[in-house]
Amino acid sequence: MNIDELPTAELASPGPLRESLVAAVLAGTKTATSSLRVSYAVAGEAVPAVGAHRALVDSSGERVAILETTEVRVVRLADVDDDFARAEGEGFTSRAHWRDAHADFWDSPEARAELPAGFVVDDEALVVQEYFRVLGLLSLGQLSDRDGRSPLHSLLGRRRTSRRFGADPVRVAHLGRLLLAAQGPVGAGRRSVPSAHARYPLSLTVVAGNVDELPSGVYRYQPDTDSLTLRVAGDHRWAFADATLVDRDWVAGAAAIVVIGADLDASARHFADQSPAGDRGARYVWLEAGHVSQDLYLQATEDGLGAALVAGVDDDRLHAAADGVLPGGHRPLVLFTVGSMMAPDR
Ligand SMILES: Cc1cc2nc3c(=O)[nH]c(=O)nc-3n(C[C@H](O)[C@H](O)[C@H](O)COP(=O)(O)O)c2cc1C
């Protein structure tokens, strides 16, 4: 069975209602649906048969799951019971609740347009109750032994981009923890992030302007020794902020900007035997920049710092700002801004 070859099952009309119904099906809380018997006749369709398979589609027409009809009952509207109301998974607590909501829907112009003229939805109207199951559905949220409250899960939930920084300096120990999380040594020559061929192609350069006990300057992180070395003294935050496309004002207010850089050509050469030659190495570098960025975010979150990744930059201006401070052959890829926390802003 291939989902792309099945007839479709469409719940309600495309839009928020369909999205919520599809979500309820996938969450395992909606296991039935109902239609007026007459609407099958109007559409020239047969009532679903037990064992039939259809593809559930979402609002964009995407096929999201295979439904199998498990039971079909045709009942008078007056005979719809509480169990069926609950199986519809739309929060109905009783048949009366179900009935009120459906009476409103079937009375809407949208529903009326698909019913025979003059059709009256009363106690005698026939309702098709279709029960179904989703094939191959595993509702992960309902696994009893999945711990959604692990420290990592909690950290992930609290991680946010914040673009307004307080005036308080960032402690140098916190800066150190960020760098350790991003590229720090973890033993046996390895670092805190995965790296293709364990090459570790990324460099981290810190543009510090408001870090306790660290004079303003541009520093290079040395992962092997977990240390910083000064490249250029003075506050150079503005030069990097000015290389961003729209974010310069708040970027300049970051206590420090971590510039993630890499030698893309060297990486391309190293992976030239992997297709597509010339492109593979760069892909790996960008993937690894993503790993580093997430680690930076999570460490900032753990230490209560505000943080934002900024990739919307003018490449030429950023190259100029980074000229001479990144390792030879490295170009700046993305900026990670960090500062004392005000509030997540979007
Ligand atoms: C690759 C990438 C590039 C981004 N570039 C920028 C940027 O240039 N400016 C900015 O303000 N935020 C930038 N962000 C942050 C996103 O806007 C932010 O992650 C998104 O709005 C989701 O919010 P959250 O991080 O709070 O979950 C970038 C994020 C990523 C992953």
TrEMBL record:
Residues 17-136 form the ASCH domain. SUPFAM superfamilies: FMN-dependent nitroreductase-like, PUA domain-like. It comes from the Bacteria. Pfam families: ASCH, Nitroreductase. Gene3D superfamilies: NADH Oxidase (3.40.109.10), Sulfate adenylyltransferase (3.10.400.10). InterPro entries: ASCH_domain (IPR007374), DUF984 (IPR009326), Nitroreductase (IPR029479), Nitroreductase-like (IPR000415), PUA-like_sf (IPR015947). PANTHER family: CYTOPLASMIC PROTEIN (PTHR39203:SF1), CYTOPLASMIC PROTEIN-RELATED (PTHR39203). This is Nitroreductase family protein.
